[in-house]
């Protein structure tokens, strides 16, 4: 890790804003990221200390500034000649020009003339489940975009009546493990339904909760520390597991890792709950290293064995009492070494060594880089630059694994500002964003047909029900994974079905179709003005030429066609027009 | 006029194409290629040039079944002739007298009984001690490595994408993944492929007659033409394939030959869709399906119950139904199974098996010299972390399939690899 002392000098008074620091960090660390063969954080830090602090700015990559006088590859970059000489390829520049930075300011207002600034739209698209007129109005109530972000980063202080209202919708969410088991034995399938209810609760929270950023970050960590909801035997603990992640999602990762690794849901899912000292089950010991923390390349097979030995002792009496306990008699004792962690592990109670081990892993550079990359892939782009990942990993380690500083650094990075629209909306996010865009109002579900229940089948139809990825690595976050032919066609189908108000239908109030047309009486408006209005309502942005043309093609109307409430379009073809707006890349990406 | 319901059909699409004087398949491609204002002209019936060619019917089909989660090959094809097998697995070994199709050394798990007609008819074989050139105990990285099958390259192109690319017409319908939703690594690459949950999902909704369909298509083409990134490609693939797939959608969903797939089985549903697709003869040459999870860290169980038995039952019942469903069409279909790695020799505390190395591959159907076991047995060790070693690189088995059955170049599909002869697939 890079000590703060080696970072660039503090900016002058007038530059002193968080963003300026963020940029300097990103620029400086780009050089570290390309140190020969990634020789390890310590070596890089030492090298940084020795190098004379002489700044230079790359003549090709204008954003690159650093103080590495002799080792920086950017030193060799010459500006491209006018005769079309090849653009030298820097390590963080694959040769294509970087996408434009979205205009707008964090310190300025988020909303201008009723529409979010480009930056506010971008931030909203990434850290909420869909920018809507309601969200825009909420953002406008803050003095600046930054103030809205700051409020989102402290969700406990945000009143959330809509999110709170969901608490009583699914009674099974309050069942403990023995109750769940009793219900399942009384009625086969009750536990499966309880897990479905949990998935629904998560989806509805994403739609209705005011704590949008919190929901998004929670989802990311619940995918990262993935326990499939329908994994064998986890049903009694899975809701509590999700709440455990919620408790730490904007806290510290080391606390989260201790709480989740020793949680009975994780223990059951990855077999630690039945592991013993005689023949430790390696499943959790391995995935903890490979998936939850440092990742491949940092550990050996002997480390996996020691990892599994440390974790022995956390037991659950499965399929009977579901008692959760620590069993010293099951704990493997004797010296253990995993990477740089060693302990005599002499005591039968292995909990202290387990916690020390998990905290060691949480603070490890490998974990920092894995989490940094994961956050960047979810919130920036499918292929974040090594410089950004290194920078976020530095922030993570300096912040003692606290997550909020990493999110702030991510938001402050130029790479984030250059990534608008680059992410594919995942299928379940598409469903959630469609509910939000159409401003449908669900009520408490009574039957399976109720929309708050049927939403789960919507996500199943698109191939991505929440936390249902069968493998322990959690669902993919990249666009290629969610761009299959059947996903695209199923998205179109779900948009159309909801734009017409056909399905889901039960316990759900759709806006009257005519209400999408801002006319009364015998007033008229041009068709292109209606498309502009719908684009602002559904996409929170002005209609693109592409959307205008597509809407014309979909309806057979020309831009200048006069629309009134008596038009055929309003009487029977609004679903087609609305779905055209939602079938648009601007709705299906974020 | 009534508000149209979204469930109304696709049949009018063909009607419209005929009425407009265009071929079904040329219609959308023409629109897609021209886009914008030109598309308006096209949907009103002006002639246009077909810009891509649909896949031609094929006489060879490869079905790759991936046993996700690393199945235990030592339970599925038991080396009863190796005494270490029984010493290492006191709680979970399959007794010799329960094995099917046994020879002097190997025998099949009793759960594979539904497949015995094909085994005895010489249409099913097993190759043991196969796997990656070096151990890789990470599910995710081993799958990537196995399906990428090009260790020297950082390009993310899977072996099936290279196979379909050898003579591809560029139609996404030539290589299909049924189920899973997320494309597998084996199919990743420049050749467009079709990833679909099922047959019915390959259809476009949002119209109710020929006129509204034409408008719907032209507006979608306008929205997605030129859109960069994976979703743009996915949308354009969807437009290209939705018509080509009409014969499959229009075919009977009832399996042929009285075949019955297990209920609630993703593998069964995927294989049923595969059989329907093959029968409709729309040019699908490669079909992949997944079956998981075989990650049995706990309770492998006895020959009659347990995690492995449950999975093996489903595996065998689905494959038997698929072969029955195919009937005489099975003479053009070769099935091969892969799994990312095998499991340890020795059982763990949970009567399960942790991550190991060597594994078994099954081959069924056309061209398979079946009814016997292939491979070189390395011998087992009974230590805590002993693996079944790999004596046959899995690519040698796959290379034999693609060269003998598909006339492909092994060097093109498995770059930098020199296969050794296994003898399990005959030419022709």
Automatic annotation (TrEMBL), chain A:
Residues 1-11 have a biased composition (Pro residues). The keyword Signal applies. Residues 1-39 form the signal peptide. Pfam families: DUF1800 (PF08811). Residues 1-21, 71-109 are annotated as: Disordered. Keywords: Signal. It comes from the Bacteria. The keyword DNA damage does not apply. Residues 80-92 have a biased composition (Basic and acidic residues). This is DUF1800 domain-containing protein. The lineage of its organism: Bacteria, Bacillati, Actinomycetota, Actinomycetes, Propionibacteriales.
Automatic annotation (TrEMBL), chain B:
InterPro entries: DUF1501, TAT_signal, TAT_signal_bac_arc. Coiled coil: none annotated. PANTHER family: BLL7424 PROTEIN, DUF1501 DOMAIN-CONTAINING PROTEIN. This is DUF1501 domain-containing protein.
């Amino acid at each position: 890790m890079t000590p703060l002392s080696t970072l660039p000098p503090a900016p002058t008074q007038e530059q002193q804003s968080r963003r300026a620091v963020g940029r300097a960090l990103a620029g400086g660390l780009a050089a570290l990221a390309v140190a020969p063969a990634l020789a390890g954080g310590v070596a890089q830090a030492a090298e940084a200390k020795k190098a004379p602090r002489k700044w230079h700015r790359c003549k090709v990559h204008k954003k690159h500034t650093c103080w590495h006088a002799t080792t920086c590859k950017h030193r060799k970059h010459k500006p491209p000649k006018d005769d079309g000489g090849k653009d030298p390829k820097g390590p963080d520049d694959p040769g294509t020009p970087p996408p434009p930075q979205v205009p707008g300011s964090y310190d300025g207002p988020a909303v201008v003339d009723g529409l979010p600034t480009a930056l506010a739209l971008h931030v909203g698209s990434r850290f909420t489940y869909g920018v809507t007129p309601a969200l825009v109005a909420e953002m406008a109530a803050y003095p600046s975009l930054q103030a809205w972000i700051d409020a989102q980063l402290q969700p406990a202080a945000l009143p959330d009546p809509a999110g709170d209202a969901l608490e009583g919708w699914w009674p099974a969410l309050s069942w403990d493990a023995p109750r769940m088991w009793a219900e399942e034995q009384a009625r086969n399938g009750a536990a499966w339904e309880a897990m479905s209810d949990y998935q629904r609760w998560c989806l509805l929270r994403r739609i209705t909760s005011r704590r949008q950023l919190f929901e998004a970050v929670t989802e990311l960590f619940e995918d990262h520390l993935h326990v499939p909801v329908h994994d064998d035997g986890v049903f009694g603990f899975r809701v509590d597991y999700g709440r455990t992640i919620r408790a730490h999602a904007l806290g510290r990762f080391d606390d989260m890792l201790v709480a989740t690794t020793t949680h009975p849901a994780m223990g059951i899912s990855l077999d630690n709950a039945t592991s013993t000292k005689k023949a430790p089950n390696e499943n959790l010991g391995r995935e903890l290293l490979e998936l939850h923390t440092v990742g491949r390349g940092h550990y050996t097979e002997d480390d996996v064995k020691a990892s599994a030995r440390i974790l022995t002792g956390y037991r659950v009496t499965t399929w009977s009492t579901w008692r959760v306990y620590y069993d010293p008699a099951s704990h493997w004792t004797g010296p253990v070494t995993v990477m740089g962690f060693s302990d005599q592990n002499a005591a039968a109670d292995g909990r202290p060594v387990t916690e020390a081990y998990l905290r060691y892993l949480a603070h490890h550079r490998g974990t920092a880089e894995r989490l940094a990359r994961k956050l960047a892939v979810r919130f920036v782009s499918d292929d974040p630059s090594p410089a950004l990942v290194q920078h976020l990993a530095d922030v993570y380690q300096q912040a003692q694994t606290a997550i909020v500083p990493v999110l702030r650094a991510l938001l402050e990075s130029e790479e984030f500002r250059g990534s608008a629209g680059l992410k594919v909306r995942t299928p379940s996010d598409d469903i959630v964003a469609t509910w939000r865009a159409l401003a449908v109002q669900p009520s408490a579900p009574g039957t399976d047909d109720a929309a708050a229940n049927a939403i789960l089948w919507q996500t199943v139809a698109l191939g991505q029900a929440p936390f249902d990825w069968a493998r322990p690595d959690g669902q993919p976050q990249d666009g290629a994974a969610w761009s299959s032919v059947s996903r695209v066609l199923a998205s179109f189908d779900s948009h159309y079905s909801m734009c017409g108000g056909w399905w889901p239908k039960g316990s759900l109030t759709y806006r009257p179709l005519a209400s999408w047309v801002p006319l009364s009486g015998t007033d008229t408006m041009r068709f292109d003005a209606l498309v502009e209005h719908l684009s602002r309502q559904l996409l929170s942005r002005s209609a693109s030429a592409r959307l205008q043309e597509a809407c014309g093609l979909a309806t057979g109307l020309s831009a200048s066609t006069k629309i009134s409430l008596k038009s055929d379009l309003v009487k029977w073809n609004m679903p087609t027009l609305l779905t055209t707006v939602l079938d648009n890349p601007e709705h299906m990406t974020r | 006029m009534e508000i149209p319901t979204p469930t109304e059909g696709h049949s009018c699409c063909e009607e419209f194409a005929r009425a407009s004087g265009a071929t079904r398949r040329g219609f959308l491609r023409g629109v897609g290629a021209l886009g914008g204002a030109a598309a308006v002209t096209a949907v009103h019936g002006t002639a246009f040039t077909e810009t891509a060619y649909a896949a031609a019917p094929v006489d060879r089909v490869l079905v790759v079944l991936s046993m996700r989660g690393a199945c235990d090959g030592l339970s599925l094809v038991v080396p009863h002739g190796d005494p270490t097998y029984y010493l290492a697995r006191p709680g979970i070994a399959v007794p010799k007298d329960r094995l099917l199709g046994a020879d002097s050394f190997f025998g099949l798990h009793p759960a594979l009984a539904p497949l015995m007609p094909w085994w005895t008819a010489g249409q099913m074989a097993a190759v043991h001690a196969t796997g990656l050139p070096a151990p890789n105990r990470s599910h995710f990285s081993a799958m990537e490595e196995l399906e990428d099958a090009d260790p020297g390259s950082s390009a993310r192109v899977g072996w099936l994408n290279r196979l379909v690319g050898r003579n591809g017409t560029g139609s996404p319908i030539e290589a299909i993944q049924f189920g899973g939703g997320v494309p597998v690594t084996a199919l990743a690459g420049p050749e467009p492929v079709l990833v679909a949950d099922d047959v019915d999902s390959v259809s476009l909704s949002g119209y109710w007659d020929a006129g509204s369909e034409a408008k719907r298509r032209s507006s979608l083409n306008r929205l997605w033409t030129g859109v960069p990134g994976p979703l743009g490609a996915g949308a354009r693939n969807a437009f290209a394939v939705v018509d080509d797939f009409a014969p499959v959608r229009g075919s009977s969903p009832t399996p042929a030959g009285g075949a019955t797939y297990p209920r609630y089985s993703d593998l069964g549903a995927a294989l049923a869709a595969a059989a329907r697709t093959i029968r409709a003869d729309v040019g699908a040459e490669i079909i992949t399906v997944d079956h998981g999870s075989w990650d049995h860290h706990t309770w492998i169980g006895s020959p009659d119950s347990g995690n492995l038995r449950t999975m093996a039952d489903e595996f065998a019942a689905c494959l038997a139904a698929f072969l029955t469903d195919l009937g005489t069409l099975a003479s053009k279909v070769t099935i091969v199974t892969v799994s990312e790695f095998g499991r340890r020799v020795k059982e763990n505390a949970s009567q399960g098996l942790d991550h190991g190395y060597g594994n078994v591959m099954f081959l069924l159907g056309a061209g398979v010299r079946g009814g016997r076991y292939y491979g070189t047995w390395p011998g087992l060790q009974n230590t805590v972390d002993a693996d079944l070693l790999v004596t046959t690189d899995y690519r040698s088995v796959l290379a034999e399939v693609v060269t003998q059955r598909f006339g492909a170049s092994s060097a093109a599909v498995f770059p930098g690899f020199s296969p050794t002869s296994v003898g399990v697939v005959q030419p022709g």
